[in-house]
Amino acid sequence: SGLIKGNEVRIGGARVGVVSKIEAQTKPDGTTGALLHLQLEAAQPELPKDSTLLVRPRSPLGLKYVEITTGTAADT
């Protein structure tokens, strides 16, 4: 999707970290996906397990960022 190491991670429009590493991962059903390693700021609290991630466009030039929508689960 055009995401690269160093792209921003945001919650509610605020920058909370960066993408530190991207790895290809084979799922049990044989399809492949991406495993993202995110470096979040120390002040950022732990995320609920049901939080979701979206890769969003940052500019018309193809820049991307990861948007986190925090969930409501008690487990982090």
Walk me through the structure.
This protein is mostly beta strands and 76 residues long. It is built from no helices and five strands. The protein has a five-stranded mixed beta sheet, with no helix packed on it. It starts with 7 loop residues before the first strand and ends in a 7-residue tail after the last strand.
Topology overview:
Blueprint: E1 8-11, E2 14-26, E3 32-40, E4 52-57, E5 64-69
Parallel strand pairs: 1-5
Antiparallel strand pairs: 1-2, 2-3, 4-5
Largest sheet: 5 strands, mixed
How far apart the termini lie comes to: 27 Å
Query: How many strand segments?
Result: 5
Average pLDDT taken over every residue: 93
> How do the SSEs run, as a string of H and E?
EEEEE
- SS strand fraction: over 45%
Q: How much helix is in the residues?
A: under 10%
Counted by DSSP, the helix tally is 0
Short description:
The protein is built from no helices and 5 strands. The chain is mostly beta strands.
List keywords for this structure.
76 residues, mainly beta, five-stranded mixed sheet, 5 strands, 50% strand, globular
